[in-house]
Amino acid sequence: MIELEVNGTSHRINVDPATPLLYVLRDDLDLHAAKFGCGLGQCGSCTVLVDDKPVFACITPIAALAGRMITTVEGLGTREAPGIVQQAFAEEQAAQCGYCIPGMMARAEALLRRTTSPSEAEMRAAMRPVLCRCGTHMRILRAVRRAAAMRGGGVTDAAEPVR
């Protein structure tokens, strides 16, 4: 039995300790935002926060997570009361197919928890590990800039103004 703290709720999970976090989130906890993409930690669609840092849930065994705070996109807000990052992504219409968006949101949230005024280079570096095949990168970057502004900061030396 492993105890996990996910989105502020404690869960006792009875699975093999080597089980990847992504499988536990989706199969045992019914949290489906994080997606299975490559299974190798290369595409980022499975990204969640562990102690406010982005991690690839597809390659992180749950044995490594006891006593740590796990946050998924579901933990950032609700449909009725979306979190700032969720709201910014919606307002910028950042999703096309939406497959990468939970990973993008998790990375944006991690960045903005670290600093509300990242540089353009910091923002781009933070988002780089998640692949978007639909080509909505510019809208995603606008959403991160908007979220930073909504948190009272902003992206310094930004290439595009926040609308």
Automatic annotation (TrEMBL):
GO terms for molecular function: 2 iron, 2 sulfur cluster binding; metal ion binding; oxidoreductase activity. SUPFAM superfamilies: 2Fe-2S ferredoxin-like, CO dehydrogenase ISP C-domain like. This is Isoquinoline 1-oxidoreductase alpha subunit. Keywords: 2Fe-2S, Iron, Iron-sulfur, Metal-binding, Oxidoreductase. Pfam families: Fer2 (PF00111), Fer2_2 (PF01799). The lineage of its organism: Bacteria, Pseudomonadati, Pseudomonadota, Alphaproteobacteria, Sphingomonadales. It comes from the Bacteria. It comes from Pacificimonas flava. InterPro entries: 2Fe-2S-bd (IPR002888), 2Fe-2S-bd_dom_sf (IPR036884), 2Fe-2S_ferredoxin-like_sf (IPR036010), 2Fe-2S_ferredoxin-type (IPR001041), 2Fe2S_fd_BS (IPR006058), Beta-grasp_dom_sf (IPR012675), Diverse_Oxidoreductases (IPR051452). Residues 1-76 form the 2Fe-2S ferredoxin-type domain.
